[in-house]
Design brief:
Layout: E1 3-14, E2 18-29, E3 32-44, E4 50-58, H1 62-74
Antiparallel strand pairs: 1-2, 2-3, 3-4
């Protein structure tokens, strides 16, 4: 069985009812645990329930995250 745990998250709202969620997550499997950064795009339903459209997982290594952030800010 695979289990996911959200350790910390931040949300950036945009448009009328959209958001991007950046979170640190941990995956727990029978063979061990691993942390990663997830970036997910979603939207709110009329009752303010969250729904997600897509997501990407980034490596946990600090130098890789800094390199990715550098490329994002330079675009």
């Amino acid at each position: 069985m695979v289990e996911f745990e959200t350790l910390k998250s931040k949300e950036v709202k945009f448009g009328k009812n959209s958001f991007i969620e950046i979170s640190r997550r941990k995956v727990i499997t029978p063979s061990g645990e691993n942390e990663f950064i997830a970036i997910s795009r979603g939207y709110y339903l009329p009752d303010e329930t969250k729904r997600w459209r897509s997501s990407i997982a980034l490596p946990n290594e600090k130098e890789k995250r800094e390199e990715i952030a550098k490329h994002i800010t330079s675009l």
